[in-house]
Amino acid sequence: MKPEDLKRIVREKYGEIAKGSENENQTSCCGKTADCCSPAGYTVFSESYEKLDGYNPDADLSLGCGIPTQFAGINKGDSVLDLGSGAGNDCFVAYALTGDTGKVTGLDFTDEMLEKAGRNLRKLGYKNVFFVKGDIEAMPLPDNHFDVVLSNCVLNLVPDKNRAFSEIHRVLKPGGHFCVSDVVIKGALPEKLRQDAEMYAGCVSGAIEMDEYLEIIRRNGFTETRMHKQKEISLPEDLLTKYLNPGELAGFRRREAGIYSITVSGYKE
């Protein structure tokens, strides 16, 4: 599948989520209360934000795989960028950390998500939070501008991850850093599981090997790379049996392959 086709699928899938009601998001497969994933679902490994300052339930669509703001070292007055900002969840949590003297920018390429984020922002009345339409592989943002870049379970959906980290490096100030939560793979994952478009837009098929992921970070000039957290993701059996035959499933269970959520950071010199 061509990169532009994958982007179109991601845009369409997440547009559907943004247009769904809060009740639909909570009860749909892979939503807040779900423990499965299907062709209609989007993620199976979100974490709870409910006790964090700045949390806004209207902005939480349960599409993340970690909480990067917990490890991002955001200070008062920082300029923060959130990639794939969705309905604004991580932006509003970042705002609670950076305060009125800072600035938080959310970047997303899905119109419906930007509209939902804008509605949430208007209700909250924050003056230093902004949402911008753009592609992570070619951000419409200036060089050397941000102190911190965040992303939560989005870079795995970007076809050219090398270009994405190159852009992160470009927009960060010297001495700035990123902190992202994302999905990676350890070991060989059956090709049909990786390539299926439903899985790509919804769960893990956009993920790459963890060692390759970390190498891309280093290759783009980041230093002091730190793995803050990694957690194995247990996928439900009905999903696995859809994509794996009995032999492949047995190998998967023997830990020949695994899917992990990670939170990692790195600095621009």
Give a quick rundown of the structure:
This protein is α/β, with parallel strands linked by helices and 269 residues long.
Strand-helix topology:
Blueprint: H1 3-19, H2 22-27, E1 79-83, H3 89-98, E2 103-108, H4 111-124, E3 129-133, E4 146-152, H5 161-171, E5 172-187, H6 191-195, H7 197-202, H8 210-219, E6 222-232, H9 237-243, H10 246-253, E7 257-268
Parallel strand pairs: 1-2, 1-4, 2-3, 4-5
Antiparallel strand pairs: 5-7, 6-7
Helix pairs in contact: 1-4
Please explain how this structure is put together.
Helix content is 35%, strand content 23%. The N and C termini lie far apart (36 Å). It has a 7-stranded mixed sheet with strand order 3-2-1-4-5-7-6. It is α/β, with parallel strands linked by helices. Helix 1 crosses helix 4. The chain has one domain: Rossmann fold, CATH 3.40.50. The longest helix is centred in the first third of the chain and has 17 residues, at 3-19.
Count of extended strands: 7
- The total count of helices amounts to 10
CATH architectural name: 3-Layer(aba) Sandwich
- The separation of the N and C termini measures 36 Å
Give the SSE order as H and E letters.
Answer: HHEHEHEEHEHHHEHHE
In round numbers, the mean pLDDT is 87
Summarize the amount of helix as a percent range: 25-40%
Q: Characterize the main sheet.
A: 7 strands, mixed
Residues in β-strands, percent: 15-25%
Q: What structural class results from the helix and strand content?
A: alpha/beta
CATH top level class name: Alpha Beta
Radius of gyration: 18 Å
Name of the CATH homologous superfamily: Vaccinia Virus protein VP39
| Count of discrete domains | 1
Quaternary structure state of the chains depicted:
single chain
In terms of per-residue confidence, which ranges show pLDDT below 50 for 5 or more consecutive residues? 22-43
| Net shape | globular
Q: How are strands sequenced across the largest beta sheet?
A: 3-2-1-4-5-7-6
The CATH topology corresponds to Rossmann fold
